[in-house]
């Protein structure tokens, strides 16, 4: 089980991040900025920004150094959720326990709020005291992970294969792009800020890739067995949209196996990092793996 120390650190970093978010200024109060804030400040676990901040702590770097980079990824993630929920995509009515953005503000404003958050994310990366060379690398990394070579590509593939039977390998590719790429941004961005070596970045990327796949597998499971009140969103959406999922391809038992397989791969990557850099403290990121393994799922198999 994740340690009490981890939960304390998780809560501390989440509070720090939430406090930083209150300092954001979107300019004049309009329906657009209200729509942006509605989704960005909605109650959530903030897994991606906290993964970035915890990776910095693993390198003994002050998490404050990564707040702008963490805000950027949360903005990109939030924009993707707003657009995912639209009628043209997943057509969902509940997100983070509240009506989805387009249900409250209309489709046009929801689209523009997502566009504005995506644009604002790159502005956030220009702020702060990091060296300009590091900021440029972070901008390039976020563009790579979120655009046509990353998250957006995964979303497109996911739409194209609706109502089709696909292979496990194809499903993994979709999830590596759709979910895994933003996880990769988080760990690699922290590595860039911490001036990690090329080989260390390789294992940071592998850790995130495995973690992202595990997260998506868990999400597929929760869409079947989860509690909507706990999750803050409707369940059964994947089946309704005839999406390919791990449970649909493998069944529940094998899906649990693959979840644990990818979590173990993430742990192996941390062990490699520790061998490469004795000053790298894997404890927090190890507990992050355990959080994904246990949260919401009562696995008694």
Radius of gyration: 18 Å
CATH C-level category? Mainly Alpha
* Mean pLDDT figure: 89
Number of domains: 1
Proportion of residues in helical segments: 55-70%
Number of helices: 15
Query: In which order are the strands of the major sheet placed?
Result: 1-2
Regions with little confidence, pLDDT below 50 for 5+ residues: 230-236, 296-301
Q: How would you name the CATH homologous superfamily?
A: Farnesyl Diphosphate Synthase
Order of helices and strands: HHHHEEHHHHHHHHHHH
Structural class: mainly alpha
Gross morphology is globular
The end-to-end span amounts to 17 Å
DSSP summary, beta strand count: 2
Q: Main β-sheet, in a few words? A: 2 strands, antiparallel
Residue fraction in strands: under 5%
What does this structure look like?
This protein is mainly alpha-helical. The chain has a single domain (4-294), classed as Farnesyl Diphosphate Synthase. 70% of the residues lie in helices and 1% in strands. It is built from 15 helices and two strands. It has helices at 4-21, 31-40, 47-58, 67-84, 101-105, 107-124, 132-146, 151-160, 168-193, 198-225, 228-231, 237-240, 246-250, 252-276, 283-294; strands at 94-95, 98-99. A two-stranded antiparallel ribbon has the order 1-2. It is globular. Mean pLDDT is 89; it is low at 230-236 and 296-301.
